[in-house]
């Protein structure tokens, strides 16, 4: 009888041990059991707990936890795993190819239209003028209304001022004389003798006569003549050092300045300065070596003397003072 009871106890102990081993994964040797993974088999954003469900000794904190994108159980409210909105033109330049569907979205069906990024970072159907800047007057004539903002630019705020294209193809404020031809200067920037016309080339209402014309050097377009460009020569018939004037005495529109002018050796009318038809100023002409001097003539208001102290040297030249200037 005692033997039967002992066998019964051994059988019960054996069954209990087997059940425990089976509950702990009997296929894995003791010591190699996997640690508790709170996010195993869960998706990003699912609720989780740091304590294993069967561990009575682990105390869970009251903080709400969820699985993050890396599979870790972290403190956070639902929504920590919201994926960023797919931007098909992120880090791309205008003209780069793009697709509306995210590469990892198997449920999105891309259309067959070839697309590219535009200048605003949008993935749009590709076109030849996709990256061309908006020209408000492209294809428009002078006087047609225009807008500074492109029609498809929702971020641009157009003001209420009415605008129109001018003759130069610019979108400007509308006005009554917007498309009037500009004033024509037939000899603007042209030398004497260059051919010119009284009518502007783009003026269909102006009728040019058959007379050949040329610029006279004073901005006038006149009929061509032999003496058209025979200009005033201020030193004609004069000798070197004779006084002269830049303005033709017969030209009432020319204003002569008050400075003295003389004809130089080449018979050009120039300003009279020291060295040209007068002796240059030399402060050392009647001074001994070592005497103080100046470069500027005291009577010359336009000459500015520097602050360096100068003396006459052995050659009679006014130079900066030095210890051996007269040695």
Q: What's the topology here?
A:
Elements: H1 2-23, E1 65-67, E2 73-75, E3 115-117, E4 123-125, E5 145-146, E6 163-165, E7 171-173, E8 195-196, E9 213-215, E10 221-223, E11 261-263, E12 269-271, E13 292-293, E14 310-312, E15 318-320
Comma- or semicolon-separated keywords:
single chain; disordered N terminus; 3-stranded antiparallel β-sheet; mainly beta; 327 residues; elongated
> What portion of residues belong to β-strands?
5-15%
Overall average residue pLDDT: 82
Specify the biggest β-sheet: 3 strands, antiparallel
Low-confidence segments? 1-8, 10-28
Tally of strands: 15
How many whole angstroms does the radius of gyration measure? Answer: 50 Å
What's the overall geometry?
elongated
Class of secondary structure makeup = mainly beta
CA-CA gap between termini: 147 Å
* Proportion in helices: under 10%
**Alpha plus pi helix count:** 1
N-to-C order of helices and strands: HEEEEEEEEEEEEEEE
Sheet with the most strands: spatial strand order: 5-6-7
């Amino acid at each position: 009888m005692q033997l039967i009871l002992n066998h019964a106890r051994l059988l019960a102990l054996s069954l209990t041990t087997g059940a425990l081993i089976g509950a702990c994964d009997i296929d894995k040797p003791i010591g190699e059991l996997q640690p508790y993974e709170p996010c195993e088999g869960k998706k990003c954003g699912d609720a989780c707990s740091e304590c294993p469900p069967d561990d009575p000794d682990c105390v869970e904190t009251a903080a709400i936890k969820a699985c993050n994108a890396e599979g870790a159980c972290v403190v956070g409210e639902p929504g920590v795993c919201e994926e960023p909105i797919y931007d098909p033109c992120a880090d791309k330049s205008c003209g780069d190819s793009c697709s509306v569907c995210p590469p990892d979205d198997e449920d999105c069906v891309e259309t067959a239209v070839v697309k590219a990024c535009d200048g605003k970072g949008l993935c749009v159907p590709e076109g030849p003028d996709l990256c061309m800047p908006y020209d408000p007057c492209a294809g428009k004539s002078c006087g047609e209304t225009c807008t500074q903002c492109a029609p498809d630019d929702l971020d641009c705020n157009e003001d209420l001022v009415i605008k129109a294209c001018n003759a130069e193809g610019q979108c400007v404020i509308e006005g009554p004389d917007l498309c009037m031809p500009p004033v024509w200067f037939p000899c603007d920037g042209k030398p004497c003798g260059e051919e010119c016309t009284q009518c502007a080339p783009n003026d269909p209402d102006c009728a040019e006569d058959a007379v050949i014309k040329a610029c006279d050097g004073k901005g006038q377009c006149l009929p061509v003549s032999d003496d058209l460009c025979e200009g005033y020569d201020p030193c004609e018939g004069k000798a070197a050092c004779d006084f002269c004037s830049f303005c033709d005495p017969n030209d009432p529109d020319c204003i002569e300045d008050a400075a003295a002018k003389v004809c130089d050796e080449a018979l050009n009318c120039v300003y009279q300065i020291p060295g040209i038809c007068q002796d240059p100023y030399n402060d050392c002409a009647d001074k001994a070596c070592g005497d103080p001097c100046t470069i500027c003539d005291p009577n010359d208001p336009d000459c500015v003397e520097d602050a360096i102290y100068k003396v006459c040297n052995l050659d009679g030249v006014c130079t900066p003072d030095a210890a051996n200037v007269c040695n």
